[in-house]
Amino acid sequence: MFKKGDKPWNTGLTKEKDERIRKIAEMKIGKKHHPQTIRKISEMLKGENHPNFGKHHSLETRQKISEGRLKKDPERISEYHEQVLIGSLLGDASLSKGNGINFYLEETHSQNQKDYLLWKNDLLKVFNSRTWYGMFRNQGTHRNYERVRLKTKSFPFFTKLHKQFYPRGKKIIPLNVLKKLGELGLTVWFLDDGHVTVPESLVVLSTDAFSYEDNILIQKFFKEKWNICPRIGKRNGKYYYLLFNAKDSKKLLNIFKGIFEKYKIPESMFYKLGRLWEGNKEKIKNAQLKKNTYKRKWRARRRRLREKMRLKELKSKGKVIRKLYWGEGLDSKDVGKILGYSGGGIRKIMKKLDIPVRNPSEAHSGERNGFYGKSHSIESIEKMIKNRWENRMVEK
Question: Structure pTM?
Answer without folding.
Answer: 0.63
